[in-house]
Amino acid sequence: QVQLVESGGGLVQPGGSLRLSCAVSGFNLKNFPMRWYRQAPGKERELVAAITGTGISTSYADSVKGRFTISRDNAKSAVYLQMNSLKPEDTAVYYCQGSTYWGQGTQVTVSS
Known about the structure:
The protein is mostly beta strands. It has strands at residues 3-7, 10-12, 18-25, 34-39, 46-51, 58-60, 68-73, 78-83, 92-98, 101-102, 106-110.
């Protein structure tokens, strides 16, 4: 059974940081690129960051470039999203995605 389980979300003040984790089980993580998406209320889901199977290459949405960092640890079957300098507009549910699978999401709220 394939599972992607996100954690690390929460409430943070503007300018703060959070690190999201995605624990993957049931498929061989190293064979797949992985992605983080987010969906804010009333908006479409958008791609935030992506990383290749080896972790060598990454890409980011313009809105998070320079503030967010995606990484992975294939040995631990985990993917991470380090989020710095958070802004209120980063408030959303963040989802981990790989192959055809999605996690359940973790809420990130940036507010003073």
